[in-house]
Amino acid sequence: MQALKYLTILFFCLWCPLVSSKPGVLQAISRLEHTNSPLIVYPTQFTQNIVPKPIHSHNDYWRDVPLLSAISLGISSVEADVWLVDGELLVGHERAALSRNRTLGSLYVQPLLNILALQNPVNDFTVNQTGRNGVFDTSSGTSLQLLIDMKTDGPSTLPFVLKALEPLRMAHYLTTFSEGVLIKSAVTIVGTGNTPLNGIKLLSPRDIFFDAQLTDLGIPSNTTWDITLAPLASTDYAATVSWNGIGNITERDQVKIKALIEVAHSMGIKARFWDTPSWPVGARNNVWRVLLDSGVDWLNADDLNAASEF
Ligand SMILES: *[C@@H]1O[C@H](CO)[C@@H](O)[C@H](O)[C@H]1NC(C)=O
Ligand SMILES: *[C@@H]1O[C@H](CO)[C@@H](O)[C@H](O)[C@H]1NC(C)=O
Ligand SMILES: *[C@@H]1O[C@H](CO)[C@@H](O)[C@H](O)[C@H]1NC(C)=O
Ligand SMILES: *[C@@H]1O[C@H](CO)[C@@H](O)[C@H](O)[C@H]1NC(C)=O
């Protein structure tokens, strides 16, 4: 039968020389793609082919579809601003933007649980696996960073954030510092905004970490900061660096950026600059280029497509 089919194709192609005379690999692919063949299906396919990139989705909930849009582009850090209102953690940039349906749970915790359930199938092959896979199929060891920017009073908001994260915690999906050991898992939570430093310090085990002020690191007498408290340190670019991306960067700014990043790295802490210029696009790109060349760990981005193609 198969031979007959090839002969038929061959016959017709005598009359249409532009069409390939033999079924090629592209036709084989196309044929398989239109089947439910078990050969092309596997459990952790939800994020198939997506390569994680060190990009931070600034105010991620602004995207049409929060979290998933970022993950689809390989963006491995997202940010949610949370407001404690009537016992609920609502997500939005300002009060006017809040909606009772958009909560930390509905926009982030539940979708993460769904994705991670897909990436962590329980079957004969995984019975002995102790660690958890992350959201990215191409890099299961990459932890997704979720920045939770507390907008309301820190000490009263923190207990609600801890409670909202409970389903992720129960499933062992959260990076945790416990009994002197830091165990990386699928999701690393970092508190920012009004997150209370003391509240985070007191957590034991600790699965919400702190976003340190990058310009506060590197004072030898100060032992506050280490990776078990602050895996991330950030600073406001515009307030720290005078170069706006137009023209050449000054030697002074260049040295300052490098020094800040190097101090963080010497402590094992990742460095991020937020409030980088977003326009003109050329200036934005110039700043991104200098930051990456200087060793920055996260590119802070509003335009996720532009950053992922940078
Ligand atoms: C929120 O969701 C409920 C259903 O769960 C719906 O009835 C309600 O209209 C929604 N509210 C808003 C503001 O969209
Ligand atoms: C899991 O561990 C048990 C006990 O050591 C072993 O017999 C089994 O082959 C392991 N299964 C897999 C899939 O590694
Ligand atoms: C260490 O630095 C932090 C700010 O980065 C500050 O809050 C704290 O008081 C300092 N501790 C000491 C002992 O100086
Ligand atoms: C900017 O730097 C480039 C390369 O180092 C140099 O050729 C150019 O003259 C500089 N421009 C200004 C305005 O200093």
TrEMBL record:
Residues 1-21 form the signal peptide. GO terms for molecular function: phosphoric diester hydrolase activity. One of its GO terms (biological process) is lipid metabolic process. Keywords: Signal. Gene3D superfamilies: Phosphatidylinositol (PI) phosphodiesterase. PANTHER family: ALTERED INHERITANCE OF MITOCHONDRIA PROTEIN 6 (PTHR31571:SF1). Belongs to the AIM6 family. This is Altered inheritance of mitochondria protein 6.
